[in-house]
Amino acid sequence: MVVLVGLNTDLSTIKAWWRTLGGDGFAVLPPPTRGRYTQSDGHEDAAEMFATRGLATDTSFAYWHWQSHDAFDRSGDLRGALYLHWGGDHATVAAGLGEGPPGYRIVNGGPRGAFQLDRVTATDDDGLPDPQDPSGVRQLLGRLDEPRSRSTRAVEYDPLTAAEERWLHERLSGPDPVDLAAAARFAVPLEHRRALTPDEAARLLAAWREEYAGRLAAWSGWRPVLDALLRQEHPAAREVAAELGSEASYALAAHPSPRSLELLRTWALTGDDGAVAGWFRVHRALREPDPVEAARTLSEELTARTAPETAQTALLRALREAVTDEPDTRRSAADAFSPLLLTTIRFTTDERLPRPLRVAAAKAATDTTARVREAAARLTGDAGAERDGQAADALAAVERYEAARDGLLAGTGPDLDGYEGGLGDIYHRYRTLSPDDVRWLRDRLADPATGVQGVAFCLELLHAHGEGTEADLVALLPRWKKELTKQYRTTYTEWRHPMVTLTCLAQDLGHPATAAMLAWWAKPKPLWKEPVRLLTHLGAPDEAKAAELWEFVASGDHDTGHLMTWVLLRARLDGVHPLHVADGLIGQPSVRPYVLHRVLIGVADPAQPLWHYAIDPRSHGWWHRAKEVADHPGLTPAARAVGMKAAREHYVTRYPDQVRPVLTEGEVNEARAWLAARADRPEAD
């Protein structure tokens, strides 16, 4: 986004105020460029600013990043609240920011949230803005769209006042033609309360069909209109849903009918998660109320129709939610067991369910048994025979699961096309590869259906562990020019771009395809590859490659894995552990400390380096590597201090509920004891 700033815009006013802030242990970063895209970028910029200005490393600071900058339109006026992120002491930051510049207000998001800066707007006696005041209208709609409560099954909103409802209806009663972009904003809060009228819905439908003929899903405001049409049983409702496709699944599931069932089944067989959940819900409503029997029927059809494996996972989620919502499975708040967790464990050995569903349950139950054992230990002998019985029943379910687990999970792996962060959460499980793991990873590389993200994940693991083979390379050769050369952002992951890893593997193997790949990297386009081109030097390393990489590192240009690559490359050339290479760089002026600290911990296990461009405080992998560095007897005190600092800043004891997968109480207590035993250890500056 390019912002064209004139005089007296919100942006110019905020920048002028921003320049006045700072002092008393508080500093602000300059307004962002595209290089500061995330909160991690902000913390890196802060570390660099502290070093440049000679500020103490514990200085509290505030900033906004480029994503927050979208709050400004092209003219520099606010079109949404500006989120101000921070680091250090929350109270110091709050005091440093104050109330904001005149005409604006700051909302404090609390110790785990961001601050929000927005305009001060005027309202009438009913708390309603002038319809011509865009900031006031935006703030009202934001307040009305804030849920009162949210669960996996429902979102509830506070009721509208009579004045609010009247004000919203008036906004939809303007003359034709309907301004759909504006109308959607007012339709949403009304339909959240099922208050959109039949006349309003029909009028919006007519305008929608006219303006977006043949591409109904292109209008971003269609959801409340479809909900209203289905609720009001408009004759065109399901015809419209069919044209929208699987995105309409949730709405159709809320209004069961034979036509809804038919549409949802068609979409579910393609593997669409939302359609699978909707299909299950409507099938129960129309044909089979028993959730287990309904899931069995649908699972068998998914298998018969060779639907994607992820469809079984989506069906399991729908089944678990349905079963734990039954009155006899609900448990009081005082109960130690999570119904969802226990149900998942029990489903792994429930012979009423087909094997694909039990396999999905076994995957979902991974990392949960220790939590159940802890809960059982708390119950045993605590409150009489009934509670002891619950504990014994739960432990028996765990033992049945553990006996069946290996057989169910053999030859399986994670969803490679799902949420990228989910793969990062389980990356620590692959520090060693079993023969089953190697086979599964190779099979995924050989499968043309595996997407770029999956190829990157699997290839990285095989190559890093020394398991990459010519067969893996050959399997990917038909795809590299058309698919693997596409842009794929890897700065938030533990693995590299697949073309980087594939090129390294080709060089290590001395494969004839190496020349063509290196020639592609040497071309000026596409532009995305230039920042990561030098990472390919890790393949078949030599002194010339090491020298070129070091020249880049010493230049101070933005690091996207270059120092880590140099450390790993140097270690291979010298036949030493990369930790010792990284340790030797501490104090060198040509290396930025905050980059080196991340690299030092990231290479703790050279068989699986962590390529994420910042230390992830919610990761099991980074926690274990930080401890290993802190306790490594062969490292210098300065290097061990780096590990100690990262361990103390990790969320494992500060915010354990944010660590994924979920920690047991025993793991948290063990981490606290480990830190307490090293309380007198120094940290890196």
Radius of gyration: 28 Å
Distance between the termini: 36 Å
Instruction: Give the overall shape.
Output: globular
Q: How much of the residues is beta strand, in percent?
A: under 5%
Q: How many strands in all? A: 7
Low-confidence stretches: 1-6, 330-334
Mean pLDDT: 93
Q: Major sheet: order of its strands? A: 1-2-3-5-4
- Main beta sheet, described? 5 strands, mixed
Number of helices: 33
Helix content: 40-55%
Class per helix and strand makeup? mainly alpha
What would you note in describing this structure?
The protein is mostly helical and 685 residues long. It has helices at 10-18, 39-53, 90-97, 134-144, 162-171, 180-192, 198-211, 222-231, 237-244, 249-253, 258-268, 273-286, 291-304, 309-324, 339-347, 355-364, 369-379, 385-409, 420-425, 435-446, 452-464, 470-476, 480-484, 498-509, 514-522, 543-555, 562-574, 578-583, 593-602, 620-631, 637-649, 651-654, 665-677, and strands spanning 26-28, 60-63, 82-87, 104-107, 115-119, 149-150, 155-156. The strands form two sheets. Strands 1-2-3-5-4 form a five-stranded mixed β-sheet, with helices on both faces. The protein has a two-stranded antiparallel sheet with strand order 6-7. The protein is globular. The protein starts with 9 loop residues before the first helix and ends in an 8-residue tail after the last helix.
Task: Jot down its keywords.
disordered N terminus; two-stranded antiparallel sheet; globular; 685 residues; 5-stranded mixed sheet; mainly alpha
